[in-house]
Design a protein that fits this description.
The chain is an all-alpha fold and 134 residues long. It has five helices and no strands. It is flat.
């Protein structure tokens, strides 16, 4: 690796860290806002809890990326599944049957995608980093 490539790699790594820091800070602010809203309303609904789970998944995703340098594809899928469940729970009274089926089908497809990815990781694991760099 040349000196220019090393500098470029370090610059990109720095920008990734800045981006992750921004995502983490924005998520913590969103959590605080949601908790403050619950305190003011003096009630906690299922929609509030599901939104907090989405925020926690985002923080977990940032943490995993910072620790390992890799973003597991399953994490955004989990977030999408919880978001669809939240949407379904909140708006089910206003939805027609086709929209309910579409959201449920999308959730099922995402769940199947998680299973396929998980199976692929177990059946065909990634090579060691040392093998890739060689």
């Amino acid at each position: 690796m040349t000196a220019a490539q090393r500098r470029g790699s370090r610059a990109l790594s720095f920008l990734e860290d800045i981006g992750l820091l921004i995502v983490a800070i924005a998520t913590v602010i969103s959590i605080g806002t949601e908790v403050w809203t619950m305190v003011q309303a003096r009630s906690v609904t299922l929609a509030d809890l599901l939104l907090l789970f989405i925020y926690l998944e985002v923080l977990a995703m940032v943490g995993i990326y910072l620790r390992s340098g890799q973003l597991p594809v399953r994490m955004p899928l989990y977030i999408a599944i919880v978001a669809l469940a939240r949407y379904l729970i909140l708006d089910i009274k206003a939805m027609d049957n086709w929209r309910i089926l579409a959201v449920a089908g999308a959730t099922l497809i995402l769940g199947a995608a998680v299973l396929v990815i998980r199976y692929g990781h177990l059946r065909f694991p990634y090579p060691d980093k040392t093998d890739v760099d060689s």
